[in-house]
């Protein structure tokens, strides 16, 4: 009895697993847990008989002076533990690299896959089939020194082929960072560990069954191949899960209700939905929404990566709609053009909601003629707006905040009215600033909470919900104040002054003077004032976020905290002015804010 193999675990595998657990902990959720568990069970069950056969036939031995002693089917406990810890380590690396991706974008139907993907899948399939056959021939035909290499190939390649058939196109479509690196990183690490372990004789391959060649040092070709193919199997397995999860999350017409953690039965259903039933227009729209989010907001793009499931998709689609609508107004050159978009946006909402403007109530229409809506979108909006309008989840979102949002954009349009008219600056008093911020941002808070509660909060009481909705509006206002504080100079350049005229009057200023000299000392004083108010609102609303349902709470805190961090940075650098193209919050600081937010929530 000895501890050499156990020491390999204590020195190399367990510390890495602990480190990765610490790093991944803030983003791990129930679905990840089931995914890893399922992979471990599959990997363990698949490796057990194979490894036992290797030991029984004398291909592989563990000198008794390096293991503690207890065995199962001839396999030392240390080796059994290795199956588990390798799967765990590689799974965590895969999850860390894949969390920033919205997998829905990479779904392919039989018809829409580009030729190169079809060809790569076919080529990969043929290679794996060929390697399986070659493995059989080497192990049982030629045998001798080819035995071990053959046994590795004939065992691993058929499993790899199955996952390739199931998810090959999806795997090929994913960025290489998310597939190749999670294979290569743990493989290289295990090669180095093996080099050290073999050098010390922890396990050995019998001389008559191996090629006797080393990749480097004393690392046998067979061992190197073993780690490479097993890590490939783990990554392919996880990607197959992710593909079916993406099907479940992406298509409400196939899966109207999705629990926080889809059951194995649902995953199977995801497998058996033919790709011809995929709504590829929706996938293209989701892709466009992600591109828009990535291009326009670093804070929300970063935050979106910690959301999961269908909530993540709905939030990205909501962002896309808001951004597209805001851009239509901002990019218009005249007041008339701005008002045309405002009117069209109201008309778009009227297809889905019935607004009683006098009573301030909005109800969802029972019947929507989707053909009519589609025709309206195509004829009245530019092609770039189409998917954002079509995919807005109006069946879940309340109508009132959406109309209020457009009311806010209407206030923005006022900045473009004729010069010298009294209406040109709509923010006259502080109450106008509050109303404007409520419209363009308080509404976003309300819409976000509505989505979270719809997806994860069936048990939320009406009283708790009302308190959260009120807090969400206040939090939205806080974020808008940070936005205005950051952009005083940028906004002035386009003729917009959101600082209340009553504030300006206190120091003998006018909006025109701010536009002429946006860097005057007073603007920095007003910035402080806006930020003080933003943090006062934040102090009230932030504790109420703790009442948000699991699954939505942590990620939403990340979104809010990442935005408020802009305010903290401005407070630390009172004279800092936004430079176009430069992030206000550095990536490392965002990462730290994210970790703190996830742990605190
Ligand atoms: C994670 C994710 C994808 C979230 C999406 C959130 C979302 C739908 C944002 C919409 C943003 C948008 C384009 C709105 C149009 C009006 C506007 C410009 C509002 C300003 C946002 C800043 O956007 P911008 O793209 O300009 O940002 P950059 O600085 O350029 O990066 C606003 C400042 C409003 C943002 C307000 C919110 C996200 C609401 C916050 C409140 C909550 C999340 C609710 C918290 C819950 C409780 C219970 C308190």
From TrEMBL:
- Locations listed in the record: Membrane
Q: Does the keyword Transmembrane helix apply?
A: yes
EC number from the UniProt entry = 2.5.1.32, 5.5.1.19
Alphabetical list of InterPro entries matching this protein: Isoprenoid_synthase_dom_sf, Lycopene_cyclase_dom, Squ/phyt_synthse, Squalene/phytoene_synthase_CS, Trans_IPPS_bact-type, Trans_IPPS_HH
Gene Ontology cellular-component terms listed: membrane
Q: Which GO terms describe its molecular function?
A: geranylgeranyl diphosphate synthase activity; intramolecular lyase activity; lycopene beta cyclase activity; squalene synthase [NAD(P)H] activity
Question: Which membrane topology term applies here?
Answer: Multi-pass membrane protein
Protein name listed in UniProt? Bifunctional lycopene cyclase/phytoene synthase
List the source organism.
Answer: Coniochaeta pulveracea
